[in-house]
């Protein structure tokens, strides 16, 4: 059949099929059938638009189209003025320029070319010209072989039952358009319905079994056995229900009516109808079985496409890596671009693409290069630092262990030029212990210099006179607090804190809480902020002290409770070895009894400076009597890992408890009754858990009496702060004379005594 005749035949079939559809819709409307889809526009599926009539006949089992009528004539075109007339034809020159030379090739050559094309290209060629369409969509063996070879080459699933190779190719490999409304980007194909439809069309056209009777009241439900169905609704989720396509129901009704209207006798017609029904049931079953195969193919195809994308991504990354290697970068730095979208997207790398992505990727590689060089350099420096650390530990073991407390850490020396020059030498220099020998020889002098500088810094804090907090409205005679202040490094008031707000270093495995305040020169000299070589060369973690105001106040109150003045020394308090109870802290109820924490004098000061620093308060202490002091000393246990032997370097790396160190001194060094600071010492300042003591409430002494204080009655009409101002007797009289010009102040009229509470 010629191309013109086939096209005309297809047009006539479509026109008559549309007219027949309208009649069936009108008949259904009169009979009460739902006309929801009667006015829908003709489907733009492959069955109606893209295939000739021969293929449509293969898809359907019968047709009610009559071919006796000629196709409708074309309307005459209008010219620019809107009048019918003969439009000028294009010249032969333009016609020759626009004519496709591919259609002039011999058929055998065309079929050789078609045999090398994938399904997508065959679909595009079938829409390129009428001649190519005729060749590709003809139901000849060569044409079917071309489509089959293309499908197998693309690893597509077998052809669906009731469909041709070209129809199946358009459904699987065609553009993702909805076959009903033409909506784009419709990726899901329902293989049970053999249709690609958008969500909107699915909602409008799918009919569930439970609603079939209400949608088609005049149609027997037995017709559903002849229709394709799916178990996936418009929501995209599978279920046990069955959905049918609305137009399939109408088409099947027309198909059955066409068979019944045949010119054959009743018996022959009945046989034909029975054969048709049996064939349809067999076809529906085959479609359902085929859908399972397509579902497995879909998963396999998705996995294959992902593998292809991964391969493209790997190839793109390898191409980028090759180009950056040509620029002089190393693979370790280039690996930093892994994971970036522009480096691993599944598209080939072109020169234009390379120019676009080079700059941002090169910045990432440069950053990785800088980071790599930094860590390579750090590894070299750390290796040299380990050599210096070994020499420093040898020096540390060579001195008396009690000197370890004030020995500065290694990192404080590494910033010195004698160490720094070796650590920062070129990478090709293999540093050994001999390189550090000059630095090791000068180590005692550097230790003495650092210790002297620490003592000078602490002495400067001591020699700085205390500043009395000024008040804007202070007057002569007004009570202003004069804070206590230490006047020597050995003073018991010498309480320091680190400006870095750090605590004493806690060795691994040690128990107890680090002391936040340092009482006395020796405790301050033993503190060193945590740091490293890198922090030292940049000036970080430099230990800077300041006097602890709360600690000095607590120490002053402590000295007064034992009868000492502010000039008492740490040695005097150590000799006294008294125990104290903080009266600011409330009692703890243990087993129905009120118990109090009991502290040695240093622990009492650090307790107050640490615990009561957030809420300023006046320190108040109770000195225990000798009997209770001995009782508490018997209960005290020091389980902190902070003690070391003073005769060997056994505990240079790991301190032990006091009991274990005493046992070590007695067993190893054969010293009975070892003494503190002579045979063993506390290397790390860790505050042990204080002992507790039950003190009956009636035994607790009352708070110390307050000094008599007075108010000025002449200030009664002023602001509340002026009315509540406190004076001593001499001060209130001076205040009345200076401010209120009262030369002879009298009690009850000008001033009054504040009652004690």
TrEMBL record:
InterPro entries named in the record = F-box-like_dom_sf, F-box_dom
> Taking every annotated instance into account, which residue ranges of this chain make up the domain F-box?
99-150
Q: Which PROSITE patterns match?
A: FBOX
User: Which is an annotated Pfam family here?
Assistant: F-box
Where do Basic and acidic residues bias regions lie?
A: 33-44
Q: Where is this region: Disordered?
A: 1-93
> Locations of Acidic residues compositional bias?
45-63
According to UniProt, the name of this protein is: F-box domain-containing protein
